[in-house]
Amino acid sequence: MKFEFFDVTADAGFWAYGSTLEESYENAGLAMFEIMTDATQVSPVVKKEFTIESEDKVSLLYDWLEELLFLHDVEFILFSKFKVNITPLEEGYKLKAEVWGDEINREIHEQRDEVKAVTFHLMEVNKENRYSVRVILDL
Fold this sequence. Notes:
Layout: E1 3-8, E2 11-18, H1 21-36, E3 46-54, H2 57-75, E4 77-89, E5 92-103, E6 117-127, E7 131-138
Antiparallel strand pairs: 1-2, 2-7, 3-5, 4-5, 6-7
Helix pairs in contact: 1-2
């Protein structure tokens, strides 16, 4: 299972999973766009690359999703494919991302909920048998 949603009043929440930290972040990106549309209908024809640095894994997760939401809002792109590489720094972490998607087309892409913001509320990054990340989004 890549991700699962849970009920949050007036917001959207999900757990995303992965065998690696990177995979859990990739699946968090997919879950966020699944809230907005049927991501299986989004062709990976537009590629974007970016790098972010944050002081810890939770802040990195927040910044990752915020950057995706920023690109969505500014360039009107829905993303459906994610490749993340995370490396530790002396203080914090660096995330290099390649993401693919398509410009929003309401004739093709189902319109679901609009994500207004990523929140730090209850956000966490865990590792037991696998990585799991918890995210709550403001709708």
